Amino acid sequence: MEETEAEVAPALIAVHPHRSSVAVAVGYDLRVFDLLAGVGVTLVNDSSSSSSSSSSFHKDSIRAIRFSANGNLFVSAGDDKTLKIWSSISWRCIFTLSSEKRISAVAISNDESCVCFADKFGVVWVVDITGFDANQPLLDKKPTPLLSHYCSIITSLEFSPDDRFILSADRDFKIRVTNFPKKPLDGAHEIQSFCLGHTEFVSSLAFFQAQEYQHHLLSGSGDSTVRLWDVSSGALLDTCDVANKAGLLESNGNGKSEEHGHAVTDLCTTLDGLLVAVAIQGLQGIALLSCNVSAQTLTLAKVVSIEGEAFVPTCLGYAASARELWIVTGVSSLPGCSHPSFARVRVISGIDIEQEAVVLGDDKMPGGEKLLETLQGTASVDENAFLAAAEAVKTAMCNLLIKKQYTSESRESRKKTRNDRKLKQ
Amino acid sequence: MPETGVKSTFSKSTGLPRKRFYRARAHSNPLSDSHFPVPISPSHVDYSIHFPQIFPDSSKKIQFADVGCGFGGLLISLATLFPETLMVGMELRDKVSEYVKERILSLRVANPGQYQNASVVRTNSMKYIPNYFEKGQLSKMFFLFPDPHFKEKNHRRRVISPFLLDEYAYVLGVGGIIYTITDVEELGDWMKSCLENHPLFEALTEKELEADPVVKLLSSATEEGQKVARNEGQTFQAVYRRIVPTEQTS
Ligand SMILES: C[S@@+](CC[C@H](N)C(=O)[O-])C[C@H]1O[C@@H](n2cnc3c(N)ncnc32)[C@H](O)[C@@H]1O
């Protein structure tokens, strides 16, 4: 039923942990730029894939991309029910896996032994990739079910930095913390805690890299807040109402914000978590929260606005070595628009407590015009596309995350047209 | 209760709600999203609404959950058998949960001091158990005559499944007991094998089953159980204890 509706997908970005490359996914397009060599990367499909000649490696919108913590691997997955594991050195696909359902989130254990992904039924699967060889395609690896959220779409999957826990967040406001077992192929049965407090879908999760705070977590939600948790107990330590603090509610005029108008769409810890970058609907730029984990406080430090463009980020990435925040906004094909897809990449440098954060102009971008050409598909961005994209981004975020509320009438009619009923008659 | 000309939904002779006014669809699809309030977290469950004579002066927590409690027969029996224990029925169909609520309220009126420890919530237990109970909070969970969902592709609608057992293991304290019974042999086998294969549960021994007064209620206390008994149907039970796994995973 929903399968037939064309859903727009928000653009995604991921920065290599050593800042050697940056990847952007928009629609089914995967674009990678090599920052060391200063050139766009040509991805190479694995030999087992049927259409090795095709320039698109995914057949439908990509919903999740990420690098492994050590930077050896990269994964991409999405609506085409396909997950691809790439060597982020050779940029060769070393493994393609098909899932029965669309894939909504992925995670790689920090020791690079397992890749996990969540499907549209709320089931999290695990693939053992121990001993992979960047030059050798992985053979015959089958995913096995690890855990499940009962019929809720999983929006985010994350390993704790010590790999002790796997976290799964869903559309039902829930964050589940599960002990990651020694033998993951037997399933993960021991739930450590649930982090409960959000009053809308949970959109994003982020851990702190600092050793002493490995079990502290940040989460962003459609309820327009970011929350700080202790995952071992599930205790909520602090809440920052970002929409309110960043003044987004006032600008609206009538004092009442539109529903889901200020969903937090992504967040990212920087400087070992001292500063948290937050993308939130309705904000042209990002909010920086300062986080004091030992004092258990989360407060708005500043808002970095992006002038001159209707730039509401869909995804964030952080390059620790350069203290840069990489941000993207964009969507897969815009309905009724000549642009097949749209992506715009910006960088905010000087992510620091003391320094002033600066939004880099296109002429100052690392990788320059070539990078923009690779990641955006074009070096210069059409103003009109921007406005259309901003609207579509909003819709995309809603479709992705907000449960469709059916009237009782449409529910009845959906029932009547259900396939299993039809067969009976 | 003031007399009105209209037929009361309460029986005049017993003061209890009449079941026929609370008839509802026989089967609910637990997968569809209904809209009822869900507590944000267990600390948001308002105990003084459910147990007004006990709260706010107590710090007790609910220890028994009857999942898919139907018309509430088991709760009614347990309430007097364990007068110090707080218990709650969870029911998806709103008319049925309303019936149970009224039933308990009138029993409280008719028997002062009793039935104060039992209540009911309308919820989808398959989605919201963690919103009601903290880790290790429960000492007993009941799944009596759950809907069978025969078709293979509907097995994921069953209230006992390998994945859902992870959540039940989370809300049950170590030593806590999960009770299941059904008159459908296939479902009985399914529930038993799910529990048997789960690393956090072990079967009670014959002796333990013998000694547990609750086991006897499984086939006799609920409306569904009584119906099966009337028809002299066979029942299949599986009773398991929450254990610490032999090999710690972490
Ligand atoms: C066959 S009846 C048995 C009722 C009762 N336990 C008895 O033995 O008489 C099963 C009950 O479970 C309820 N139910 C089914 N799925 C449920 C769910 N996900 N959450 C709560 N209740 C559910 C149904 O509405 C129904 O009342």
From TrEMBL, chain A:
Gene Ontology biological process terms, A to Z: tRNA (guanine-N7)-methylation
Superkingdom as given in the UniProt entry: Eukaryota
Annotated Gene Ontology cellular component terms: cytosol; nucleus; tRNA methyltransferase complex
Pathway: tRNA modification; N(7)-methylguanine-tRNA biosynthesis
Each WD repeat, start to end: 55-87, 195-239
UniProt keyword Cytoplasm present: no
Primary residence: nucleus
Protein name: tRNA (guanine-N(7)-)-methyltransferase non-catalytic subunit
TrEMBL record, chain B:
UniProt cross-references to CDD domains, sorted A to Z: AdoMet_MTases
Glycosyltransferase is among the record's keywords: no
Pathway the protein takes part in: tRNA modification; N(7)-methylguanine-tRNA biosynthesis
Entry annotated with the keyword Ligase: no
Principal place of residence: nucleus
Keywords: Methyltransferase, Nucleus, RNA-binding, S-adenosyl-L-methionine, Transferase, tRNA processing, tRNA-binding
Residues that bind S-adenosyl-L-methionine: 68, 91-92, 124-125, 144, 222-224
Coiled coil region boundaries: none
Gene3D superfamilies xrefs: Vaccinia Virus protein VP39
One GO CC term, this protein: tRNA methyltransferase complex
InterPro entries: SAM-dependent_MTases_sf, Trm8_euk, tRNA_(Gua-N-7)_MeTrfase_Trmb
Location relative to the cell: Nucleus
Catalytic reactions of this protein: guanosine(46) in tRNA + S-adenosyl-L-methionine = N(7)-methylguanosine(46) in tRNA + S-adenosyl-L-homocysteine
Active site per the UniProt annotation: 147
Pfam annotation, one family: Methyltransf_4
Protein family membership: Belongs to the class I-like SAM-binding methyltransferase superfamily. TrmB family.
Role: Catalyzes the formation of N(7)-methylguanine at position 46 (m7G46) in tRNA.
PANTHER family named in the record: 3-DEOXY-D-MANNO-OCTULOSONIC-ACID TRANSFERASE/TRNA GUANINE-N 7 - -METHYLTRANSFERASE (PTHR23417), TRNA (GUANINE-N(7)-)-METHYLTRANSFERASE (PTHR23417:SF16)
Protein name (record): tRNA (guanine-N(7)-)-methyltransferase
Top-level taxonomy: Eukaryota, Viridiplantae, Streptophyta, Embryophyta, Tracheophyta
